[in-house]
Design the sequence.
């Protein structure tokens, strides 16, 4: 459950990193965008890892 939550948190961060600059017309530096996508990717991968570790632990 926690891994799934973290995965969706990462997906939400990635979507926000794409949508917020478009909606508000903000021009962000490339390194800020890269950090946002990096954080989103980290939470998605970390969430998947926690999810699969939890599944393996139950077996």
Sequence:
């Amino acid at each position: 459950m926690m891994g799934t939550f973290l995965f969706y948190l990462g997906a939400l961060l990635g979507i926000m990193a794409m949508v917020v600059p478009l909606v508000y017309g903000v021009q962000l530096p490339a390194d800020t965008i890269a950090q946002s996508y990096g954080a989103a990717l980290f939470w998605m991968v970390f969430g998947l890892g926690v999810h699969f570790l939890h599944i393996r632990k139950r077996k």
Remarks:
- Residues 2-58 form one domain.
- The chain has a mean pLDDT of 84.
